[in-house]
Structure to design on (308 residues):
């Protein structure tokens, strides 16, 4: 009886992350070792340690390394970059990979391939992987997202990061940069929607629900509100509402999940009291209003705007 000798342990970090055949060979793993039961093939040149739990960043890094000349894009890039996405897209297990036309199409299980035209400055390197820039990712999402969702993602791109709350110090993109990119790709899927979205993107929305509230107001024919409306316009320390109408002294606030903390509630109470004490009409909306497409919010603001 011949006893099978157990395979030696996989070297770190191959025991916990996907890896390419080139990385395996550099680490001294033979073809026979790659056929062992503790390693699963994920298609051409890509391997997974047995029992590996799906983790998008590790798989995207290995996929990028296994396909030279290609880059992570679309929904996968949005998740890795931290761009806002509707909830039903955030847990997608399909990986999106883009290639230039000079390379053969992508044919991998679980990979959505795209053959696109991209300029050098529209692809960058992140954690050792090639990935589309935030602005280019936004453009690619135009073929997937609704107009309202695309505007929300665009608002996030141009938003000025807040010290202490964001790791970035500069916006991901500017509106002129987005418009220039639209001009470079006149035939891209979703370009008409992207052009329309670019006209609706505004500085000052701190969250997607704030964007949806603003869009609901304007879609109902109401005037476009001022964003990040300060009680005292030229005072950077003055309390600010998410949006409102200064002339009519109407302030509007959307309270998201982060407003549930005690510290945030204290700040909110001080802000609310400041506007109320100054004689403003002050409206607060939440996730219940969002779930109803802000219909009640629109009715309330319309009445306020039409009343003396």
């Amino acid at each position: 009886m011949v006893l099978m000798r157990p395979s030696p342990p996989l070297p770190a970090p191959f025991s916990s992350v996907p890896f390419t055949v080139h990385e395996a060979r550099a680490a001294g793993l033979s073809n026979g070792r790659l056929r062992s039961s503790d390693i699963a093939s994920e298609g051409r040149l890509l391997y997974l340690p047995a029992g590996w739990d799906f983790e998008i960043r590790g798989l995207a890094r290995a996929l990028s390394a296994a396909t030279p000349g290609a880059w992570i894009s679309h929904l996968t890039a949005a998740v890795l970059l931290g761009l806002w996405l509707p909830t039903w897209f955030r847990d997608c297990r399909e990986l999106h990979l883009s290639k230039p036309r000079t390379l053969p199409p992508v044919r991998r299980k679980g990979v959505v391939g795209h053959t696109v035209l991209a300029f050098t400055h529209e692809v960058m390197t992140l954690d050792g992987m090639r990935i589309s820039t935030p602005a280019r990712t936004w453009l690619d999402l135009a073929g997937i997202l609704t107009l309202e969702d695309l505007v929300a993602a665009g608002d996030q791109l141009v938003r000025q990061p807040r010290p202490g709350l964001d790791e970035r110090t500069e916006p991901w993109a500017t509106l002129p940069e987005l418009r220039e990119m639209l001009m470079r790709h006149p035939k891209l899927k979703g370009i008409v929607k992207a052009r329309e979205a670019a006209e609706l993107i505004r500085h000052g929305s701190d969250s997607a629900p704030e964007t949806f509230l603003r869009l609901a107001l304007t879609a109902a024919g109401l005037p476009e509100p001022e964003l990040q409306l300060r009680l005292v316009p030229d005072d950077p320390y003055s309390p600010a509402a998410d949006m409102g109408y200064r002339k009519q002294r109407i302030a509007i606030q959307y309270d998201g999940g982060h407003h549930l903390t005690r510290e945030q509630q204290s700040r909110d109470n001080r802000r609310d009291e400041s506007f109320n004490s100054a004689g403003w009409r002050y409206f607060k909306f939440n996730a219940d209003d969002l779930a109803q497409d802000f219909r009640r919010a629109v009715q309330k603001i319309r009445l306020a705007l039409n009343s003396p």
User: Anything to note?
Assistant: Residues 262-277 form the longest helix (16 residues). The domain at 204-308 is CATH 3.40.960.10 (Endonuclease; Chain A). The CA atoms of residues 62 and 306 lie 58 Å apart. The chain is about 40% helix and 15% strand.
